[in-house]
Design goal:
Elements (H helix, E strand, L loop, with lengths): L1 H8 L3 E5 L4 E7 L2 E10 L1 E9 L2 E9 L3 E6 L10 H8 L10 E9 L2 E8 L4 E3 L3 H15 L3 E6 L2 E7 L4 E8 L10 H4 L1
Parallel strand pairs: 6-7, 8-10
Antiparallel strand pairs: 1-2, 2-3, 3-12, 4-5, 5-6, 7-8, 8-9, 10-11, 11-12
């Protein structure tokens, strides 16, 4: 939305009200920074049985619950159907279940992720709440409040406030399509 408001309304700074809370967005050149002050990244370890083994994940609610699964390599994550299902519908995630984010740590405060999103029921190129969840898991283990996160859709930076309250996502944004919504749909 930040890129759209810049391109169509000429606004560099805008505030959006969402069902989760207020989002402050600023645009400078190609970079868009979205501050989500309402996020409080709390982490909880969960396990699920997959192919006869206990597999661990970290449940992180970043506005949407994410089961973050640590892996050595992201390649092949999309073939892990039994693991995805076990954490997607894990009882600890609540009645709507969780997104499943695979996390590969590649350096100090540097990670790669791939997220299977509920509702979409598939992998997406990038997931903001998944980036936040993966960054929180990495930073809770390694220390610090800032992480670089690579997704199949590109690179983002997640900067947390103290005690992991509030987070700013920073990265490039481009407008990829334009559409018109019929008034009939809105009724």
């Amino acid at each position: 939305m930040g890129r759209w408001t810049k391109n169509h309304l000429g606004l560099d700074n805008v505030r959006f009200e969402t069902s989760a809370g207020m989002v402050d967005v600023s645009v400078k050149d190609e970079q868009v920074a979205s501050h989500l002050g309402f996020v409080k990244a709390s982490l909880r370890e969960i396990t699920a049985e997959v192919a006869g083994k206990q597999v661990r994940a970290t449940l992180v609610n970043t506005g949407v619950p994410h089961a973050v699964v640590r892996v050595d390599e992201l390649e092949g994550a999309d073939t892990q159907k039994e693991l995805i299902s076990a954490f997607r519908f894990h009882p600890a995630a609540g009645p709507r279940g969780a997104n499943v984010t695979f996390l590969q740590v590649v350096g100090r405060a540097k990670v790669r992720t791939k997220t299977f999103e509920r509702g979409v029921e598939g992998f997406t190129l990038s997931c903001g709440t998944g980036v936040i969840a993966a960054a929180a898991v990495c930073l809770k283990e390694q220390g610090g409040l800032r992480a670089e996160v690579w997704t199949p859709g590109g690179e983002l930076v997640a900067e947390f406030g103290s005690d992991f309250t509030g987070v700013t996502l920073i990265g490039p944004a481009v407008e990829v399509f334009e559409t018109t919504i019929s008034e009939e749909i809105l009724k």
